Amino acid sequence: MSASLPYRRNVGAVLFNPDGLVLVCRRADLPNAEGAPGGWQLPQGGIDDDEDPAEAVLRELAEEIGTDRAEVIEEHPEWLTYDLPPHLIGVALGGRYRGQTQKWFALRFLGRDADIRLDADPNPEFDAWRWTTLDSLPALAVDFKRAIYERLARDFAHLAR
């Protein structure tokens, strides 16, 4: 069944603060997963039909963290794809996709920490956030996204301080 399902087009944000740290957010549906892989993730979300990915990533930031006070500093040259594990096929992503194909962007945060408002959405995806080092991302990722986070940590390393 999974091979017949499409991949969902998605954008992701690696948001760097002035100190070279990256924003990660804790999933609201996993509030007890403080140190568990997958409890923390980078902001990401679907691309609307005919939407430019660079515009979509700023829209997703505004929706998920309450601010789009950022500028794109680099676009990952490839679409990165992951498959859902078998137990999530037909359950996650509305049950309509086998995984996601993602266009990732590195962005520079232009705001202040107070601009980050997870409560901007009436049904927030995240309930906490923090700044962390880029190289810590793979350890935070759920298993099926770990290869993408490893790739991002490697390919955007030149942007971290």
Task: Describe the overall structure.
It is a single chain. The protein starts with 6 loop residues before the first strand and ends in a 6-residue tail after the last helix. It has one domain: Nucleoside Triphosphate Pyrophosphohydrolase (Alpha-Beta Complex), CATH 3.90.79.10. With 161 residues, it is of the alpha+beta class. It is built from 3 helices and 7 strands.
Structural class by helix and strand composition: alpha+beta
Total beta strand runs? 7
Please tell me the total number of domains: 1
Rounded mean pLDDT is 91
| Strand numbers in spatial order across the main sheet | 4-1-6-5
Return the string of H and E elements.
EEEEHEEEHH
CATH topology: Nucleoside Triphosphate Pyrophosphohydrolase
Identify the CATH class.
Answer: Alpha Beta
CATH architecture grouping = Alpha-Beta Complex
Helix content: 10-25%
Largest sheet: 4 strands, mixed
Share of β-strand residues? 25-35%
Radius of gyration: 15 Å
Task: Compute the number of helices.
Answer: 3
**What spatial form do the alpha-carbon principal axes imply?**
globular
Going by CATH, the homologous superfamily would be Nucleoside Triphosphate Pyrophosphohydrolase
Distance between the termini: 44 Å
Unreliable segments of 5+ consecutive residues:
none
Motif (Nudix box): 45-66
Family: Belongs to the Nudix hydrolase family. RppH subfamily.
GO molecular function, one term: bis(5'-adenosyl)-pentaphosphatase activity
Organism: Elioraea tepida
